[in-house]
User: Fold this.
Amino acid sequence: MTLVLEAAALGILTGGVYALMASGLTLIFGVMRIINVGQGALVILGAYLSFAFFRSWHLDPLLTLVITMPLMFGLGVILQIVFIRPLKTDREALSVLVTYALALGIEGALGYVFTTNYVQLRAWYETASFAVFGFHITYVYVFGFLLCIAILGALFLVLYRTSFGGALRATMLNRTAAQLIGVDVDRVSAIAFGIGVATAAAGGVVFGITNAFNPGSHYDLISRLLTIIVLGGLGSLRGAIIAALIMLVTEDITAVVISPVWATFVFFVILVVVLIFRPQGLFGVRVRDRI
Amino acid sequence: MRGNFLPRVRWRVGRGPLKLVGLLGLAIAALLLPFVAPDPATTNIAVFTVMYIGLATAWNIMGGYTGYISLGHAAFFGFGAYGLGLMLVHLNITPGYAPFVLVPVAGLLSALLAVGIGWIALRTRAATFVIVTIAFMFMMQLLAENLVKVTGGGGGLGLPYSHDWGGDFFNTPYYYAMLLLAVLGLFVSWWIRRSKFGLGLLAIRDDEDKALAVGVPTRAFKLTAFVISAALVGMIGGVYAYYVTYIYPQFVFDPLIGISMVLMAFLGGLGTLSGPVIGAVLLEPAQLEFAYRLGASRLYLVFYSAVFLLVILLLPRGIVPSAAELLNRRRARTVVS
Amino acid sequence: MRQPLSVTCLGLGLLLAACGGSSTTPGSAAPITIGVSVSLSGDFSGDGKALEQGYDLWAQDINKNGGLLGHKVTMKYVDDASSTQQVVTNYQTLITQDKVALVFGPFSSLLTIPASTVTDRYGYAFPEPAGGGPKVFTRGLHSIFFVQPAAVEDNLVSYTKWLLSLPSGQKPKSAAYATQDDPFTQPQVDKAKALLEAGGVTTASYKVYPAETTDFTPLALQVVHANADVVVLGTQEPDAVAFVKAFQQQHYNPKSLIETTGPDQGKDFADKVGAGNTEGIMVPAGWTPDAKAYGNDKFVSEFVAKYGGAPGDISADAAEAYSVGQVVDQASKKANSIENKALITALHSGTYNTVQGPMSFDSSGKPQGGVGVYIEQWQGGAAKFVYPTSVAAAKPEYPKPNWP
Assistant:
């Protein structure tokens, strides 16, 4: 029983990291109606950027975010302008292909620069832990969880407390109508993509501290992120967070109660059952049709 | 959105005889290939290219005609592969030509699976559908990995293969099997496009709710297209498994196989008959060659991705529609002058 | 450059050549290319660098000695992009288009099997350093040769022997096992479990996990809760690191910890887990820089001269790849031919000396009569042979010291 409780606690803590990575993905979908298959590769890119600073300047991995997040934001804006904006027809489907091509490009470039050897970010808090009722909680998970809350909190503030957030939400609700009331949809989209990519950097750091990674790691990651945002409902930030927690808690509990090999499968079963009753996901809005 | 669909059909009919000659030429070339270029390195690439012609064509029946983008068709590919593999192992089939006879059974199995998956997945639309198909693909992969007693699990499954076929001949039977399936796929695709069923599918692509309103049984139509598409993919998966002789869950339930067929259909032109063929012929040999020639320099992926991006950004509607548009415009100009 | 060394190798080469009755003059025959497929991209990409380094170093050595039976050797590497299609394509293209004289095994152990059926079809010998799972040897092929001291499933056998040989007061009572669902790790762990159970060590926990797992903490938690004396893990490098970290996080100190892969990666492993945390961790290894095997000191010194670093940083993969070359070299001299058919016949008889020790092959390509796989243990920042005693450079530390 204690094992189950521990697994659940662990699931919540690691779920925060996945929430962070998935939030960017769902935000990008919400604003632009595109599935960014490259999000996984961008997370890995973020992890490698931190790794580069960590290796050459011996910076604390979490501190590197001060540099990598703005960098990744800029990269996101550029990617949106160069590769996503030109897509006029069939955006939804074409964007999958474009972002997939970007993922391959990023993987290839990372492999060229860093080789395909596994690397890992190191910090004092990766193994240091404190005890709560005999269960050792590692600092890195706590820091990751706090980082996730801070960034997601900031994201909510931007969305609901600023005029830019208003424009962004308007674009999410109805792109054409937003344009009509004078929202610069292109600008909003570019910035939203930038934010989505910047959260990938944040997710990447925590992922890189808790996991050894190589340029090919994005394949396993993106499939998990995609299923998270579908369960939560595409475009719903709240949904992504809750779905990430559901995923990790389910997996961790299944791993200890049944077997690790069935962990992901059980999550997929939950996803399918939810979709039978709510095809739009937990918090999704039912889309009448593609616009 | 795709209002120019009808005029394009008329244009096609007008070019009928020319097209027929071209098609005949292509068919003869395809049939003679193993004799003209018997080099195994070439026939091997031909096996995989024709395989992807079949896969992209089959995928197009669902994705191109209905607009439902499935990224998880590798689920049926892998199911067909394991279906055939397990039949060969458990029924003690003598390797040689006999296993090819069982390929339709592998297709049937995949079709049955598609009924189940389609029933659930087709409740969702657009982006959700895309991701749900990926999820199902991974579920199949996990099952293949976890049901160790049935599939052999992560250790993989070895298929018997003919030791009598030497290296110079080995690829030939597989090439013809793949070719037969690709032609079957093309024929089915062509037939659907001309049928009322096909019109219904195109109506779903343009506006599903309107299609439903005018009396198209959308659910039944979508599911039928999905199942036909899956059956073809499953058969191809079966031949593939028999060709490579050893399969692993992660290498046949491979998201990259699923995304490759989509990419080829897009590159050539979604919803067209020749588009997936052109896409596959351009992309698969290029990919195999790139990895072979540039692989050691570690730049293969960067290069592949650059070409890929360029094509999508320059020809967002695919090669066939873009070329047709260009031709139409030129013809229109000559008519005016 | 380093004249004395090359003189000794030349001497050795000539000696062997004389034994084989070879009469070719070095450097007189046509140059040849040897083809290899490596996984440099894709989902299963790993660092094939060590493998390439091992092959390259061997090619350099053999060319310095006048070539493989007089043929200058060039290595050709192609990327298999972690896909079956590509590996099948690569070996067919290497053999039939580029007409390489010989092929060596790929980096990816999984792709070794599909590759082996292709090379067999063309009558090529397929000496390979990576794929040693039980299923490799059940395909009915006579052209594959697994160049490691023992079939992979036997990797942990000497570890179990050591544990069971401990005095009764120290002998462990229980063991926890976790292994990747991988054809090259699970058979080792399963065999170790059977042997330990037969020797009276109870199984406190046994878990198999998928290769795609990214979060190992819940798994580690189960091992921790089993609270066994001994922990046996069927890992690749990333999970090997993750388990070590998770055990530290949970302050769990088993009396002995062995991981199938990871701790054998030298400095690379120490960098990831932290040098201070490596103390006492064990790994089965067929090779170590200070082993007194055939040509090993030369291999180590040349490797360090060519690629830099310290002997302790050399990955076992490089030594395994180098051994493939050594085996082929000796087989070609024995057969007095570099024809694949002659090489296959030669490889099925006799014993071959490698930096991993002597080995021979049965009809299915399984290594036979070799010295078997030893146990290495990290002590004072380096991995050392600790068992069997005949080769040990240090005494095993038991119980393993607590995490710092």
Notes: The interface with chain A takes residues 39-49, 82, 181, 207-210, 212-215, 217-219, 221-222, 225, 237-238, 241-242, 245, 248-251, 268, 272, 274, 277, 403 of chain C (CB under 8 Å). The first strand of chain C starts at residue 32 and ends at 38. Residues 284 and 375 of chain C are 5 Å apart (CA to CA).
